[in-house]
């Protein structure tokens, strides 16, 4: 029986190729669960009255760490199931705030896809996390080890 929903192999990616994920709204529950799971109890995330009085922006701000994790989840769902082998490195820039109620998606450009000596591949992408307002709130450039077609055929 054919398995669906699997990720992309490094040999199927070419430099310059672009794609985007589906969108995902960030909810108040997402924020609360993230705070409780990580212990990231920064008052900007836990005290609405403090945020109103002292916050640098209006709205229920969300940690960039949560936004990044949700973006990675969107990418796992769309391109890394059973093919992502290792996360090796990343450059990361937060460009602006994200708020509860924002819907994010990831726009991804393949910068490099090359083989390793073991038949796997190294894939570097430039990822932009974009809101429904078409604002790029985070940009990051991960380097990952990704299975090749021969690896994926074994699973």
TrEMBL record:
A Pfam family found in this protein is FAS1_DH_region
Q: Which SUPFAM superfamilies match?
A: Thioesterase/thiol ester dehydrase-isomerase
Q: Which domain of life is it from?
A: Bacteria
InterPro entries registered for this protein in UniProt: FAS1-like_DH_region, HotDog_dom_sf, MCH/BMMD
**UniProt-listed Gene3D superfamilies:** Hotdog Thioesterase
Q: Where is the FAS1-like dehydratase domain?
A: 15-139
- Could you identify this protein by its name? Acyl dehydratase
The organism encoding this protein is Tepidicaulis marinus
């Amino acid at each position: 029986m054919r398995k669906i929903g699997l990720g992309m192999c490094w040999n199927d990616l070419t430099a310059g190729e672009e794609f985007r994920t589906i969108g995902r709204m960030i909810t108040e529950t997402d924020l609360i669960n993230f705070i409780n799971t990580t212990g990231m109890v920064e008052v900007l995330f836990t005290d609405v009255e403090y945020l109103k009085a002292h916050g640098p922006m209006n709205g229920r701000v969300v940690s960039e760490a949560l936004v990044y994790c949700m973006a990675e989840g969107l990418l796992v769902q769309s391109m890394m199931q059973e093919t992502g082998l290792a996360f090796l490195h990343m450059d990361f820039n937060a460009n602006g705030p994200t708020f509860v109620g924002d819907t994010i998606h990831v726009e991804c450009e393949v910068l490099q896809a090359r083989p390793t000596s073991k038949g796997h591949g190294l894939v570097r992408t430039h990822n932009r996390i974009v809101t429904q307002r078409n604002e790029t709130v985070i940009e990051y450039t991960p380097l990952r080890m990704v299975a090749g077609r021969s690896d994926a055929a074994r699973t």
